[in-house]
Amino acid sequence: MKAAVIEKKGTDPRFKIKELPRPIIKSGQVLVRNYASSVNPIDVMARNGRALLASAGFSNQVIGSDFCGKVLQSKSRLFKEGDEVFGMISAIKGGAYAEELTVNADQIALKPKNLDYVEAAVIPLVGLTAYQGLFKVGRIQEKENILITGCTGGVGSVAVQLARTLDCHISGLCSEKHRAYAHSVGCDVVIDYQNQQIPSGARFDLIFDAAGMYTYSDLKHHLNEQGLFVTTRGETNNIKGLVKTAVDVVFEPYMKFVFVKPNADDLNVLKEMIEQGKLKLHIEKTFLLNQLTEAQRMMKNGGFVGKIGVDIGE
């Protein structure tokens, strides 16, 4: 099978397409012929980390989290050969930037019928992050007043659509050039984080930091009593932010992290919403497997809405 393998070359590790052996499935797993994947910020981080391993002598480092394809072999009663499935692999494990992969059968779901392979492949990681962050960690309720940072990114735009199903009042933070898109996915109020402040009197039942750029101390004055601040990462892009986030994690009970986990039940909730027309993710651009270096560079540079797709081919 073909896979995009990391090769360490200077400070910008690149991918090289190589032929690798077919993965061997174990009991409770399925072998998937993978037709599509996507690029997530965590994949870019994993790329740099795996490149260090490659430079230390570990060859054939394959990353990637999202996948969508057909079951080739099954050692599970949950799926049979020919089933179209989608899901995610932990970014730490990786392996989705390849034509074939093995996955535990209790961590995947049948592909939504109304999406093609690339459209389905961009959903799992960001969809599960948003769903688990809002419903399992944030305990979102109907008609709450919520704030979502990064509301036009992958996680954020899914979070807005999920909150919309509960008739919540949604304020979103994004750049001014993405204001129209933020309204289109369901934001009631859009705040340009570069040139506007959150109104001083604004109070929220839940703040979901989908951008992963803030910590509790930054926004706690905008929370109602008992309101929760849920973040995907916290303000960890500099030393000062790391220290502030660490202090908040220890001392602030209303700050929570969402650590996304592959989960078939949660995927099936998303699948049902997609098939009902309540959830769809914009794809800004789709790259081929041999264009992964360019795709990850686009992710690193940012400035787009939705997701980046990867077409691995049938």
From TrEMBL:
Coiled-coil stretches: none
Gene3D superfamilies: Medium-chain alcohol dehydrogenases, catalytic domain (3.90.180.10), NAD(P)-binding Rossmann-like Domain (3.40.50.720)
Protein's organism: Olivibacter oleidegradans
Protein name: NAD(P)-dependent alcohol dehydrogenase
Domain Enoyl reductase (ER): 10-310
SUPFAM superfamilies reported in the protein's UniProt record: GroES-like (SSF50129), NAD(P)-binding Rossmann-fold domains (SSF51735)
Recorded superkingdom: Bacteria
Secretion signal span: none
Listed PANTHER family: ALCOHOL DEHYDROGENASE RELATED, RETICULON-4-INTERACTING PROTEIN 1, MITOCHONDRIAL
